[in-house]
Automatic annotation (TrEMBL):
GO molecular function: kinase activity; RNA binding
Organism, as annotated: Mycobacterium dioxanotrophicus
Protein name according to UniProt: ANTAR domain-containing protein
Domain ANTAR: 165-226
Organism lineage: Bacteria, Bacillati, Actinomycetota, Actinomycetes, Mycobacteriales
Taxonomic superkingdom: Bacteria
Stored InterPro entries: ANTAR, CheY-like_superfamily, GAF, GAF-like_dom_sf, GAF_ANTAR, WH-like_DNA-bd_sf
Span of the signal peptide: none
Length: 237
């Protein structure tokens, strides 16, 4: 069983995830690019792959792509507000197009894809979806009916492991961001304490009041104080 192609795919991507976990810092763009490249290598019918990130306000970002086509198709989706990657991310876990020329869903997207690219088959898998953003892993082929049931199964294996890797990366980024925010606020508190001869609690209260009075996030106030030429320029305002 361990020698089956799908099992080999799972083991190889598991090794990649272990490397992410053991690394002190992972380059997000590099990992996402590697996941996309791996998908093309593991799924014979796939010629191109990409990862799409979308927000609830309709904005799309191509986080990784093996060629120019994934980014171009994401532009079509953003322009038309429809497409298989968006459907996979927001509504379904898996979306597939067998023939872009005869597909009845997403007419504007399909027309643009057909007119401006050689892509004829697409399958998209949800990586994650929360209240603000979503992610989808997408595979593309230049022939019709490229993705059979076996390709879908392989794609699901890649997408499942990619989702785990993605969650690890997001958690790492959030942790590092939280540390950076804490350090920045600590620097601002220290500067206020030294400048105005107050204690840490009083310095934090100053930051809170500045944030509330200006309707500005606390971390932004801290950033202004740390990078201002004179603290009084920020506090007096």
């Amino acid at each position: 069983m361990a020698d089956t192609p799908h099992a080999i795919i799972a083991l190889q991507i598991s090794d990649m995830i272990r490397d992410i976990q053991e690394s002190s810092h992972s380059d997000v763009d590099a990992v996402l690019s590697e996941l996309s490249e791996s998908g093309v290598n593991y799924i014979d019918a796939a010629q191109h792959a990409g990862i799409t990130i979308a927000s609830r306000d309709g904005k799309l970002h191509t986080a990784a792509a093996t060629s120019e086509y994934p980014a171009l198709l994401d532009k079509f989706q953003q322009r038309s507000g429809e497409g298989p990657c968006l459907t996979a991310a927001w509504e379904q876990h898996i979306t597939k197009i067998d023939d872009i020329e005869t597909e009845q869903r997403w007419p504007a997207y399909c027309r643009d894809t057909c007119d401006e690219t050689p892509i004829r088959s697409i399958m998209a898998f949800q990586l994650y979806a929360d209240h603000q953003t979503m992610g989808a892993l997408n595979f593309y082929a230049e022939r019709k009916y490229a993705f059979d049931a076996d390709a879908v199964e392989a794609g699901l294996i890649v997408a499942t492991h990619a989702a785990l890797a993605w969650n690890l990366l997001r958690r790492d980024e959030q942790f590092r961001s939280a540390l950076a925010t804490r350090d920045l606020i600590g620097q601002a508190k220290g500067m206020l304490m030294e400048r105005f001869k107050i204690d840490a609690v009083q310095a934090f209260e100053v930051l809170k009041r500045l944030s509330q009075n200006s309707n500005t996030p606390l971390v932004d106030i801290a950033h202004e104080i740390v990078h201002a030429e004179r603290i009084s320029d920020v506090v007096d305002d």
